[in-house]
Amino acid sequence: MKLIFLILPILVTECLGCSNFCRNNSDYNYNLYRRRYPSYYVQTINCTITCSNIYTISDIFWNYKEQFYDQFLKIDDSNITTLHSNELSKFTTILKLFLSNNHIQTILPGAFTGLTKLKELYLDNNNLSEISKGIFTSLHRLEILDLSENNLVRIEQYALMGVSDLKTLYLQNNKLSQLDDNIFDKLSQLSDIDLSGNPLIKVPNLPLTGLNYLNLGNTSLKDVSILPELNSTMKVLNLTSSHLDRVDFSKFRNVETLDVSNNNLSTLENFQNFQVDTLDLSNNKIRFINGGFKKLLSLNMANNQLEIVNNTLFNDSKSMLVIHLGFNNISLIEKDAFRDLSRLRYLFLQSNTLTKIEPRLFKDLTSLMYLSLANNSMEELQHGTFENLKSLLVLDISYNKILELHPYNFYSLQKLQLVDFSFNKISSFDVDDMSKHLSSLKNISLNGNSWKCRQLIQMSQSLNQMGITIKEGNSYDVENFHGVACQNDKISSQENIPDVSMKQLFDEFQNLLNETLNKFEFQRFLNEDFENSNFVKFFRENYNETNFVKFFSDYNSSKSVVSEKPALSALVAAPPVNTSNSLVTISIILQFVMCSLLIFMVYLMLTYLKAFRKTRNNHQISQVELCSDY
User: Fold this and answer.
1) CA atoms in the 13 A half-sphere facing the CB of 35
2) Can you count the helices (H) and strands (E) in the chain?
3) How far from 14 is each of 46, 57, 415, CA to CA, in Å?
4) In this predicted structure, what is the pLDDT of residue 390?
5) CB neighbours of 610 closer than 8 A, spacing ≥ 6?
6) pTM for this one?
7) Domain locations along the chain
8) What is the pLDDT of residue 383?
9) Mean of pLDDT values over 541-546
């Protein structure tokens, strides 16, 4: 603890010494590092100076003391335009020098004299246009040199002389159209070179030993035949966006990772027995490829013009881990195209023109973890489509035309955690049956289908109870449930309603009335019981031809009610009897009968209206009002 308190004031003093000049601008950052080794402390100071009023390096020489420990110096956002000779000579202990993001236009020979311990030099994002010889002569320990993002148009032949330990050289995004053939001579340790983003039409001679990484992407090479001989240790070669029309793959037999994406390739020359680990052929114009990937681990052929995946494409590709065939015109995948790819982990088949998948097409893909069939034209998934995909974690079948999901399609997907059914034409599926087969499912995407809102809510409730999360959709401008579009359970008032005229209504009422009367007790009463009733006896004894008897005669003759019956005939034939109270009695009885008939007719009318309403409702769907706070 005493040692820490003794060291801390010294470290703070040194950092403050670096900051005095910037204090007026209040624009500086200082980081203090301490690295602990087994038996002693080694103190490391990192001084970052951000001062817009610095015009030369000598402006910060005030109060700078040489230190006998590692030091990192960063100067950025300054107005320095020129690095003069011996200007950095007092910074003898620094290992890393960051001069990025300044306005440096010129570096004079001897500018880095005295920096004998420097290992990393960053001059990126400046305004350098030329590198002259003699600039880096004293940097014998330099391992990383970054000259990227400048305006370099020329590097002199011996400009890199003296940096014999250089391992990494960044020259990307400059204006270099050519380099001297011998510019990399004497750089036996050079392993990584980035020349991308330059209008290069020719590549200089490369180190024959030690080179691992070469980036020639986004250049103007057009033909790889102009490439010099590549050493046997080359691991990564990037030729993306280089306007290549043809590639002779025989030149890259020892390369492990090859990127020739974003070119104009239509055929592949000398591709047989090409033993590369990772190959990127995306964004070209390739229509057909024969195979020959004996050692390949990862293949990217997205955005080409493939139409068929034949049975020979992946012959002897048992080591394959990743296959990307998306964004082509593939309409057919032969049934044995993925045979013996038992190690395959990722398969991308999205954005093609597939209308169906052959059953058992994926039967050998027992290690597959990710499968995308999105954005095709499939209408159904056949039984056995996903058979043996026991390791599958993610399944994407979105943006197809699938109408129905059958639980038996998923019976072997015991490890599936995420499934995307969005933007199909699915209207229902059995949540309970599907959950039995997808025991590990955690997330599901359902947006963009033909869901009914009530059904969607019920499915959501069931899935939540099972611990499955429905991915929230983005269809908030239409009827939805948590952003998942759905349709309310209703129809238009003008849809599927029959056109019923008044004549049809009257005819139906007449038929219903006659049918009801024929079945009603009133019919039996008139024909059987009425003849033996005291009511009839009374009229036979006291009345002859009266208004009441005439009423029943008229009623009997009506076609809409009942035909002539013996009871009424007997009543009409009754002998006449004279009485003074006959008219009054008949009037009272007639009123009673008329009221009874009126009540009976009202009852029949209500019965008919109820039946008609039921018939009418059979053509409609009752509107379902959903609670918005469900």
Assistant:
1) 8
2) 9, 28
3) 10, 18, 59
4) 92
5) none
6) 0.70
7) 502-617
8) 84
9) 56
